[in-house]
Automatic annotation (TrEMBL):
The keyword Amino-acid biosynthesis applies. It is an enzyme of class 2 (transferase). GO terms for molecular function: histidinol-phosphate transaminase activity; pyridoxal phosphate binding. PROSITE patterns: AA_TRANSFER_CLASS_2 (PS00599). Keywords: Amino-acid biosynthesis, Aminotransferase, Histidine biosynthesis, Pyridoxal phosphate, Transferase. The lineage of its organism: Bacteria, Bacillati, Actinomycetota, Actinomycetes, Micrococcales. Gene3D superfamilies: Aspartate Aminotransferase, domain 1, Type I PLP-dependent aspartate aminotransferase-like (Major domain). The gene is hisC. It comes from Arthrobacter saudimassiliensis. NCBIfam families: hisC, PRK03317.1. One of its GO terms (biological process) is L-histidine biosynthetic process. This is Histidinol-phosphate aminotransferase. Homodimer.
Amino acid sequence: MTEQLDKLNRLPLRDDLRGLSPYGAPQLEVPVLLNVNENTHGLPGHVREAIVAAVSEAATGLNRYPDREFTELRDRLAAYLGHGMGRDNIWAANGSNEVLQQILQAFGGPGRTAMSFPPTYSMYPLLASGTGTAYLSGKRTDDFTLTAESAAAQVRDAAPNIVFLCSPNNPTGTALGLDVVEAVYEAGEASSAIVIVDEAYAEFSHTGTPSALELLPGRERLIVSRTMSKAFALAGARIGYLAAAPEITDALRLVRLPYHLSALTQATANAALAHADALLANVEDIKGQRDRIVDELTALGLTPAPSDSNFVFFGGLAEPHRIWQGLLDAGVLIRDVGIPGHLRVTAGTEAETTAFLDALRALLSQDDAGRAGVGAAH
Ligand SMILES: Cc1ncc(COP(=O)(O)O)c(C=O)c1O
């Protein structure tokens, strides 16, 4: 046991937090960072200038608390989402992680349960444990898909208070059909389950993929969560949001910290939304690189999952950790999500994607007959 762990264990930490590890994707200094599904394209110069001007203006009023209701931001997010959303349907916080945490604070907690379907976003169980909510793992098929029938049956059996559906799913990248959301919502009727559809990567979906925003009218237990970290290239600014019935946002007002969205965060988000078209222009480029990765990995004999996101989850690797390390040694950091035979890579700029594909090709061809690193492992 390390000295630090020893010291931690001497503290009167909550029993349910003892032995847990914090969220911790590696933050390493390497030339090509493709491990946490960031938008690899920087902000266009004129958008950066607009944000700096807005932040500078907001700084003149920093002696005062910010608008607790972030009214302008809610109006702008509602206009961006469309689907008949208005200010009262919108809530925002410091990243969608905080939005999800607030939902658990309001609807989860001791004696309550939250359910999701691994492999999925690794923060769901951590957010559950942080709020004293018991976490239930649902099951997917062997190819990581989730059908409406299976998801609904599992929700009916487990009767959770909260269900997380991640679409497109992290780490697999694939979007869920709306039939899954509808079936889970209906199955959650008996336990009055809050159903969250985490659409952090929605903007990267293939054309024609529907959003669960369509299902919101008449479904007061349904929440669609989104973020400006991915398509808007603002991961560093920490802005996430949701759309739901107005009474859901009223529930979140009971648990949010006063003035939780700083004036600087609000100014940044408002300026970015005023330039949404310019920021989202890179989404098409990223989708192109994503599709290129899928095609080239397939040509290499690997098995990428269909991706509606800005990353690709791929299998067919006999020794994924060795490949991950080899890529890192070549200056390319991707993600080992701990699933046998698989790795996950974020779509980069054209040059970054080329660096990843070249390094991977070289690693695979170093192996016997060019294939010892590729096997039937799934
Ligand atoms: C599925 C999913 N949801 C939510 C988040 C959280 O994003 P943020 O807190 O930056 O909005 C992430 C981040 O990677 C994610 O992959």
